[in-house]
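User: Hi! Is it possible to get a structure for several chains at once, not just one? Here's what I have:
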Amino acid sequence: MAAIAFYLGRRKALLCGAGGVRLHSRPQQYGTYVAVWMAVPALGIAFIAAAASLLHLDVPSAPFVFAFSLAGAAVGLIYALRKVEPTMRARTAIERFIRFLLFGASLISILTTLGIIASILFEALKFFDQVSLWSFLTGTTWSPVATYREGQQAADSLFGSVPLFAGTFMITLIAMCVAIPVGLLSAIYMAEYAPYRVRIAAKPMLEILAGIPTVVYGFFAAITVSPLVVEAAEAFGLDASYTNALAPGLVMGIMIIPFISSLSDDVINAVPNSLREGAYALGATKSETIKHIILPAAFPGIMAAALLGVSRALGETMIVVMAAGLRANLTANPLEDMTTVTVRIVDALTGDQSFDSPETLSAFALGLVLFVVTLTLNLVSIVVIRKFRQNYE
Amino acid sequence: MFRENNTQRSALMRRRYRAEKRFKAYCISALGLALLFLVLFFADMISQGHSAFKQTELLVDVVYNEETLDLPQDAVPEDVYPLISRAWFRDMPRKLKNNPALMGTTQQEWVPANADVDQFRKGNRDQIDEDEQAVLKQMEAQGKAEFKFNTTFFTNGDSKIPTNAGLWSAFVGSFYVMLVTLLISFPIGVMTAIYLEEFAPDNRLTQGIEININNLAAVPSILFGLLGLAIFINFFGVPRSSALAGGLTLSLMTLPVIIISTRAALRAVPQNIRHGALAVGASRWQSVRDHVLPASLPGILTGTIIGIAQAMGETAPLLIIGMIAYIPEAPDGITQAATVLPAQIFTWAGMPERAYVERTAAAILVLLGLLIFMNSVAVYLRHKFERRW
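Assistant: Yes, the chains can be modeled jointly so their relative placement is included. Here is the combined structure:
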């Protein structure tokens, strides 16, 4: 149908052109113009009808909708055909339409963020109707009692999330203890010392480490690293659980190494060479230059990289779901089993509770906390990195 | 006096050089450590997973007649029976019905052994029943027990019997999910990037969109799962655990990756190209469509492949929207319940039998192989079509 419209519009334009009048735009552009005017009302009406039926509103029957959109198409067609004249600026109109379309596409990303906020917030508010915010944030016992029957209120369920935060914090801490030193030192080596060929070979290897799916890391942590940790602990006469916090922490650290190293690498490379040469001219050795000149200059960027790493560790799910424990356990011993916010979210949403049970809703409350914390970390690091780039550009 | 000063100074120099060497050694060992992790990881996966690509099969006389149609366990010699996979007995009557010519004959066939026997022969299991062990030894001596390539692993769907479990339905599910993801995120991502790079005025709104995209790239993936559950499934009524729900959710995750790489590709096209097009009377959109986009297409494709490869390994949001269902048959469309490769890995990783551990590692090798293949295609495209301006 749009093709017919295109043809009609172009023919009218060609007819006008044949009369010896100079057209403002090319004939095809008039064709496209007419086609757009016809397709948009028709598709728009169909789309509104589809959206309405999804929202369970009263929708006229399908043939009616179809006829209605045909009518819309006809009105658009007639309107556009009448407007086709030699002096009409079809190209400008198309240009505006495309710009509008592109702008619309770029709004999808904003809608996604709003969608995340809305979906989490609504359900979380329902949860906080039943459980007070204060007891959620400060309670030290997490023991949701599954309620399968209608009306049976889980009054004895406790939703104190401190042990979950403690577990998340512990595993993140272990991960950062691995990732920051290894990632930063590798970045320094690659940016300052490594010959070109080593750099070319090592960078993609580290990127492989970043490309390994997290479910694979989870399997690695659960099947290989956890038993190793238990054996090592026994060798020292310590008792370790098979779902200890150390194994997922270590593996998560390995996963985060490439994020830290590639971001720090960029930042170190962005430090201008004049600073290095100034230090060499004063007789500093390479490592002295790095420690006293380059690292302080790159510090904000490195901090931002570390924050992004922390944000990733907090939100990491598969490794902890597969290798960490399920028991909410408030302890400072990484050899015991601990659970995290993300483990609890997955556990609450893959069980068979009804969707309105407090346990299911608690997943969204935990999601809200996770979102707020990671959003803060991300925004801080994005802003810091931007500032840093501007400083040296 | 002078001499003393000199030795002092050279001692200081020596100390400084030692510190220099030490620091460099720390840096090298850090990089070495990171690469060592990589090597250890791959070695571990290969050593655990390679054996799943082969499967013990036994050469057995199979009797096909009316009686064995009803009682398939009678079709094989009594002493061999406990060694054979239950899945084979389940499928045998169907095979006989599909192929009536077999009726009333006795065929010598290669039949899959069950998981215990298979694991015993692979050395993953210490003991099986002594009688079974004796029968097995005898068959091995006669050349009637061999490792064959495990085609079932690639052609079957999931199964509760490890010998029969395969990746096919997960392959098909992954394919549908990636298709939906690509169809949604590629056009929207490229359009957004074109708008931001070529059309957008430099104002607050544009900066807001930019920061928002950078932030979305770092939002934990599990939160996209919550969005998918609350909005796509509960609000819009997309079928739970369908490829459509998974694809929609993953496309929102892939969007920032595609936008960021497309913008980089567009930025790499020099201004001269745009000015040249505008100078001969092209409009802004015409110059983008006919000159900037073709020039940056390799970069855009590379970014898209990398984004899709990332989405292909993603599991957490799919867990939330229920894509860990038990799917023995490959789905026929995007609205049917489906599972994907990483979700299949997750399911198998939770199984207690030793045979599933081996299959999990093998599935991981297959997934990693696919991802490495996709990424090398991306790298190849970049090198092949990269243009220096």
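The beta strands of chain B are 54-63, 106-112, 145-149. Chain B has a mean pLDDT of 85.

User: Great, thank you!
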